[in-house]
Structures are given as structure tokens and as C-alpha cells.
Amino acid sequence: MTTLSKRIPVAILGSGNIGTDLMYKIHSNPLFDLRLVAGIDAASEGLARARELGYRTSTDGVEAVLEGGDIRIVFEATSARAHKLNAPRFKEAGIFAIDLTPAKVGPSVVPCVNMNDSFEAMNVNLISCAAQATIPMVHGVNRVAKVKYAEIVATVASKSVGPGTRENIEEFTLTTQKALAEVGGAGRGKALVVINPADPPLIMRNTIYTIVDDDVDEQAVKDSVLDMVKQVQCYVPGYRLVVEPFRRGDHFMIGVEVEGAGDFLPAYAGNLDIINAAAVAVAERYGATLN
Fold first, then answer.
1. Which of 71, 81, 125, 236 stands the most exposed, by the fewest C-beta atoms within 10 Å?
2. Is residue 230 classed exposed, middle or buried when 0-12, 13-18 and 19+ CB atoms within 10 A define those classes?
3. Which domain holds residue 31?
């Protein structure tokens, strides 16, 4: 168990919405020593807030992280293109990278589904906010009733979607789609994202559609899904089931919403909150292997 006397030196690369919210989560976590918040925009609100909290900041991006000395973990909240270039450099420097972009350099991880103590790749990919919200539900169904096909629709508030996410929307969708099969266990997957411009903004909502074999125990499916909801809530308290799994012919429908913790971003930005909460959960698990 990591103690306050052995706080883990970490850095955040990216000072946009995700990086800034993550900074507040790390700030309140006694396991980590945030040594650096790095970006490329000197005028960014994230860097200004980091300075207000007393953290060292830099506009030198990845170079600042690599020159940061004894940093053990970096949270990359930039873009898929940037992380593909940065990942081999982090690995060479012996820095464990938690990738919050859809770059998919390292293995895909959803904490309550497939995280273990094996971090040989020195890089893990958190896929997307939609994947973090929906894969636990697909996995919940699949472990008691084989999922032949999974389709998810993630609806997020336009105000919660920054330029980085918009730039990566194609990678976001494809990476999520592949992970429904690779991590969730579905035979095939399809992912859709709806960026909702409604004002006031709506909380992140997700619909999960799973086609299963005919001979299934409906109560077992419901119990398994409810158990997965509780597991997600261990690190994302605002995660909740709004439509319990119900069967229509050969498929089950499930609805979940994610309310953010409000560390920096508004509560409606549950899409950003859940991927940041997953990043912290991965960092905690990796940190435990260092002691």
C-alpha cells in the first residue's frame, strides 16, 4: 500500500478540460505527488489554475515531462496523434503512461472489467468515455449470456466536448467499437456518439443494446448487470442505472447515466469525469505494484 511518505511522482500532459479536471482529482488524492502540469498553450485556463494551486507548469509539452526527473506516471490528455508520437519516448524513459486519448498504443483497460497487476507494456489505453460507461454493462450481460452483438449510443452535452475530443471523434468511435468486442466480450460491436447542443446541458446518457442467445436466465443477466453497476460506482459515484436490463425478443436494453463529481467540470460532464476516474483507478493499481 502506497503511503504518504512514498507518494508517487506524476505528471499531467494536456491542460484542456480533461487534464484540468484530472488535476483536481490528483490534487485531492494522497497517493500522488503532482510534479508537473504541461501543455502548449501559455494562456490556457488549466495552466493558470495549476499555478494557482502551486504546481509547476510548462508550455514545453512532452519535453517538460521527459525532463521532469523522477516522474513515474504520466497522464496523457492531448490527442491520439500526439500520444502515438509520445508513447515510445515515455517507455524509453521508464515512465508509465495512462493514455486518455483513443490512440490505442497500449492494451485497452476498463478498471472493473479487465484491470490486473500486469503492466509490462508500460502503457494502458482508456479507450473513450463512452467505452468506460458502456463496456461494464456489455461485460455484465456477456458473463452470463453470450453477447453476439453489442451496440451503444452515448449522448453527451456539447459544452462538455472540447476541441481535442472533436478532433478525435472518428478514432473515438472506432476504438470504442473495437473495445466492445475485445474488452466487453461481444461477438461484434457498434458505437455511436451524439453530441447534444441542448441548453441547459444534459447529463451523459448511454443506451446499451445486446443481442444474446435464446436460452438465457433473465434474472441472472439482471443480477450481473446490477453487480457491475456497483463495481463502477466504487470509483465513479455518479454512475447509475436508469433503465434496468429488460428483454425484447433476442436482445436486452440497458440505460445508464453518468453524473460528474464536479471537481472542476459541471455535473453534466459525466463523460469526462468517468474517464478521469478510470485513469486515477489505474494509477492507484499501478502504484501498488511499485511498493
1. 81
2. exposed
3. 4-126+273-289
Q: Confirm whether residue 18 is marked as ligand binding.
A: yes
Strand order in the sheet with 32-38: 57-58, 32-38, 8-13, 73-76, 96-99, 123-125
Catalytic residue among 97, 129, 156, 221: 129
Amino acid (1-letter code) at residue 43: A
Do 283 and 263 share a domain, yes or no? no
The residue type found at 254 is I
Q: Is 163 annotated as a binding residue?
A: yes
Q: What are the angstrom distances between the C-alpha of 240 and each of 102, 230, 236, 251?
A: 24, 9, 9, 21
Calculate ∠ Cα 182-112-130, nearest 5°. Answer: 60
70, burial (CB in 10 Å: exposed 0-12, middle 13-18, buried 19+): exposed
- Is residue 129 part of the annotated active site? The answer reads yes
Q: Are residues 133 and 50 in the same domain?
A: no
| 141 plus 264 within the same structural domain | yes
Q: Is 187 annotated as a binding residue?
A: no
238 annotated binding-site participant: no
218 annotated as belonging to a binding site for a ligand: no
The answer to whether residues 135 and 249 belong to one domain is: yes
> Domain with 95 in it: what CATH number?
3.40.50.720
> pLDDT tens digits, the chain, 291 residues: what are they?
344 458 999 999 999 989 999 999 999 999 999 999 999 999 999 999 999 999 999 999 999 999 977 999 999 999 889 999 999 999 999 999 999 998 889 999 999 999 987 788 899 999 999 999 999 999 999 999 999 999 999 999 999 987 767 877 888 889 899 999 999 999 999 999 999 999 999 999 999 999 998 789 999 999 999 999 999 999 999 999 999 999 988 899 999 999 999 999 999 999 999 999 999 999 999 999 986
Separation of alpha carbons 85 and 106, rounded Å: 13
In 3D space, the residue among 290, 255, 289, 276 whose CA is nearest the CA of residue 126 turns out to be: 276
